[in-house]
Amino acid sequence: MSQRQGFTLIEMSIVLVIIGLIVGGVLAGKELVDNAKVLKLRSAVENAVAATRSFEGKYDALPGDMANANVIWPSCDSPATNCNGNGNQKIDLTESARAWQQLSDAGMVPGSYDGQGLSGIGTQVPKAPYSQSGLVIAWDNAVYNTGHFIGVGDTSSTVLFAFGTPAITQTVHMNASFDPALAFRLDSKFDDGIPFKGKVIGERPLSSFSCYNISSPAGETYQTAISGKHCFLKFYSF
User: Fold this and answer.
1) What share of the chain has pLDDT > 90, as a percent?
2) Angle 76-137-171 (CA atoms, 0-180°, nearest 5)?
3) 134, 125 in Cβ contact below 8 A?
4) Beta bridge partners of 221
5) pLDDT at 106 (0 to 100)
6) Mean pLDDT of the chain
7) Looking at per-residue confidence, does 131 or 62 come out higher?
8) Where is pLDDT greater, at 75 or 72?
9) SS3 string of the chain?
10) Comparing C-alpha atoms, which of 164, 193, 208, 185 is closest to residue 34?
11) In angstroms, rounded to a whole number, what is the distance separating the alpha carbons of residues 86 and 128?
């Protein structure tokens, strides 16, 4: 009595089909997760812009920049620091933490924020739908754009870099939350896929030069072949 050896072609075909279905399902599931994050990011940015505009329409001041915030919300001066802004119609980086606190106090964003800094994702700034990323509202006059933006990145080190005396440009830098390939995909979905052009800007932390290549003949391009987190994004929306 002979023993059967190996698989028949039909059996091997069935196995390959099953493997293909499993791999296809995994990839499709990853794509669904990625697309859901993109939609959540778009919603988070749009909601932040809408809340800021609503606040300005109601109080005739920008959140964080409001010069008499402690008159409307006396508790916002706690703990022992004045929560008022300077009223210059710009949300300076020093007012950014108070912006989220005042938006929360006004009931225009969910959550509660203490206004004491930017490093606490979830307690001082809202969480964005990517690992170690939060949202910052601020104004700067960088070489590529001037105005208010929603910054998405690691907020643990958010600083203002000034160039020139007196300052010719003032650029807000955050820590990185995105690898260059992901930053490129997001920039392409929301804007033009070019780091220093359009309404979505791909930026680098001061400690890294790996987000984009400024020596490209066609202008700045994301260095998509480089792994690791080297980029954060700025949405100049209002």
Assistant:
1) 56
2) 125
3) yes
4) 213
5) 94
6) 85
7) 62
8) 72
9) CCCCCCCCHHHHHHHHHHHHHHHHHHHHHHHHHHHHHHHHHHHHHHHHHHHHHHHHHHHCCCCCCCCCHHHHCHHHHCCCCCCCCCCCCCCCHHHHHHHHHHHHHCCCCCCCCCCCCCCCECCCECECCCCCCEEEEEEEECCCCEEEEEEEEEEEEEEEEEECCCCCEEEEEEECCECHHHHHHHHHHHCCCCCCCCCEEEECCCCCCCCEECCCCCCCEECCCCCCCCEEEEECCC
10) 185
11) 28
- Amino acid symbol at 34: D
Cα Rg, the chain, nearest whole Å: 23
What mean pLDDT do residues 161-184 have? 83
Contact 32, 137 (CB under 8 A): no
- The predicted model gives 68-97 an average pLDDT of 86
Letter for the amino acid at 83? C
- Check whether the bond before 126 is cis (ω within 30° of 0): no
Structure tokens at 13: 């075909």
Task: Please report, as a single letter, which amino acid is at residue 201.
Answer: I
